[in-house]
Amino acid sequence: MKAKRVSESVTEQVHIIMPSHISGTDRLFGGQLLAWIDEVSAVTARRHSGRNVTTAAIDNLQFKAGVYINNILVLIGRVTYVGKTSMEVRVDTYVEDHLSGIRKVVNRAYLVMVALDDEEKPTEVPGLILETEAERAEWEAGLRRRELRSKRRKEGY
Predict the structure, then answer these.
(1) DSSP alpha helix (H) spans, the chain
(2) What is the DSSP code (8-state) at residue 122?
């Protein structure tokens, strides 16, 4: 199985926030953002693996800023680490100023996606070619997150 570059599966999704996306506090409903994050993660993992995938875990989901009606929301997914059948995908979410193009961080999430064969069983994924120092740093951090996930499973959460 041929390894792939991080850049080969980068996924970007853009939304204009509409009234139907807003919660009772006049901000983007967190569940809507989570659905978009999961979708971007799935597309990213499919592009890397060439397979259907399923979400196995969402590691980290912190909201750094509110999102409001008419904001432009940008989500960017990239593979950060791969195991035998799983891929860690980082999804960064930004609000983009439509005049300046400046992006403000809203969220960063790490998800674990598992590749599935035709019988919906976990199947091997390609390796990951790391080309930059940032990609190597993400890989190392991904190793530490993998160890933490393993420890949490053993502790029952």
Answers:
(1) 30-49, 133-155
(2) B
Per residue in 20-48, pLDDT (tens digit) is 999 999 999 999 999 999 999 999 999 99
- The Cα 63–Cα 99 span in angstroms is 24
Is the separation of the CB atoms in 128 and 8 below 8 Å?
no
Nearest to 93 by CA among 11, 24, 25, 8: 11
Interatomic CA distance for residues 73 and 98, integer angstroms: 10
> Residue 8, SS3?
helix
| Element (DSSP H or E) covering residue 4 | strand 4-5
DSSP state letter for 65: S
The answer, as to whether pTM is greater than 0.85, is: yes
CB 140 within 8 A of CB 146: no
* Helix-strand-coil split of the chain, %, nearest 5: 30, 40, 30
Tokens of 89: 């995908």
DSSP 3-state of 107:
strand
